[in-house]
Amino acid sequence: MMNVQLQYHCSMIIVNINDERSSSISM
Predict the structure, then answer these.
(1) 6-25 residues labelled b (16+ CB within 10 A) or e (exposed)
(2) What is the pLDDT of residues 1-17, one digit of tens each?
(3) Higher confidence at residue 26 or residue 21?
(4) CA distances (Å), 12 to each of 2, 7, 9, 22, 27, in order?
(5) How far apart are CA 5 and CA 18, in angstroms?
(6) Distances from the Cα of 7 to the Cαs of 13, 15, 19, 20, 21, in angstroms?
(7) Helix or strand or coil: residue 20?
(8) Using CA atoms, how far apart are residues 4 and 16, in angstroms rounded to an integer?
(9) What is the pLDDT of residue 23?
């Protein structure tokens, strides 16, 4: 359970970083 939550949290952080990068590239 804990491991799955940690994995989910990390993937969300990675998605956020990628999202910020693509937005700054768009601008």
Answers:
(1) eeeeeeeeeeeeeeeeeeee
(2) 678 999 999 899 999 99
(3) 21
(4) 15, 9, 5, 15, 23
(5) 20
(6) 10, 12, 18, 20, 21
(7) helix
(8) 18
(9) 80
Token pair 């491991």: residue:
3
Q: Which amino acid would we find at residue 27?
A: M
Whose tokens are 């990628």? That residue is 18
Provide the pLDDT for residue 1. Answer: 62
